[in-house]
Amino acid sequence: MAVAFSRRKVLQALGAAAVLPAAAYAQDWPQRPLKIVVPVAAGGASDRLARLLATGLARELGQPVVVENRGGAGGTLGAAAVAKAPADGYTLLFTGAFNTINPYLYAKLPYDYVNDFVHVAPMTQGPNVLVVRPDFPATTLAEFVAQAKAQPGRVDFASGGNGTSGHLAMEVFQRAAGIQLNHIAYKGAAPALQDVLGGTVRVMALNQDTALPHLKGGRLRALAVSSAQRNPALPEVPTFAEAGYPDMVITSWAGLDAPKGTPQAVIDRLAAASAKVARSPEVRQPLAADGWMPFDDTPAAFDAFVRQEAQRWGRVIQAAQIRIE
């Protein structure tokens, strides 16, 4: 019995010794500036959201937080750089729905998005809005579906490119409604929107923050939003689910990732700080004005959400046979 007791004590001591360095590291972390890599160019929604988060994290963590834009290849270049970075909590990835889409669009990626990152904390989410020009004959979603069924393949819709959130939302909608639309892919959301405003194409699915000023100005009309509940910034616009399409609960979301292997105590501190920032009036008020909705969850729940999103988009992309080489 004395031998067994002694061996158990030794094992407990060894376990405690293994935990101490990580705990001590987390207690001292951070001791230098952090970097959040935004895998898209400056000036867009992701960049703005990341800078709001970075400002708040700097306040909470007591160290500067630098935003580095590293765009290219649909966000995969920036994600690849963070996947290879040291797992020390100092290099982070500002993530979004596109990261759960890219693995199914690109034939070969140098990382596994779901498994090579710790999905630390969500920040916010917003719906797609099905918009039409004011001169489009359908004024409700039911009328739009009826027109599409009467003219299969002849109703055009624009998107910012193959595999973008607006494109995939419309792919899901076509299957849910039993309609066939004609997809016109542009090289970016800006030229697509410009052609919709100009009347070249009259239908598009837009992120709510992009759609809002044009809806308020009367240049576009909203038929439905893809959130589970009506968006407070567009209270008069029904959801797809209200119209009988429960599969059309689709949001563009944003959050924070860290390289796999980052100490759990650092992850916990990052998650707590990110959640506090996302709840603060300095962040929540400007986000709400642009139609963004709260998205608050634990690292474990956020990880499960990311995995579900990846599985969903994998099925949609494979069924639609969408690919980017």
Estimated share of beta-strand residues: 15-25%
Stretches with pLDDT under 50, minimum 5 residues: 1-5
Mean pLDDT metric: 93
Q: Which overall shape is indicated by the principal axes computed on the Cα atoms?
A: globular
Radius of gyration: 22 Å
Describe the structure.
With 325 residues, this protein is α/β, with parallel strands linked by helices. The chain is 46% helix and 19% strand. It has eleven helices and ten strands. The strands form two sheets. Strands 1, 2, 3, 4, 7, 8, 9 and 10 form an eight-stranded mixed β-sheet that branches. The N terminus is likely disordered. Keywords: Receptor, Signal. This is Tripartite-type tricarboxylate transporter receptor subunit TctC. Belongs to the UPF0065 (bug) family. InterPro entries: BUG, Bug_dom1, TAT_signal.
Please write out the topology:
Layout (H helix, E strand, L loop, with lengths): L1 H27 L5 E5 L6 H17 L3 E5 L6 H8 L7 E6 L1 H8 L11 E16 L8 H10 L5 E4 L5 H13 L4 E4 L3 H10 L4 E5 H9 L4 E5 L25 E9 L4 H16 L1 H9 L3 E2 L4 H22 L5
Parallel strand pairs: 1-2, 1-3, 5-6
Antiparallel strand pairs: 3-9, 4-7, 4-8, 4-9, 4-10
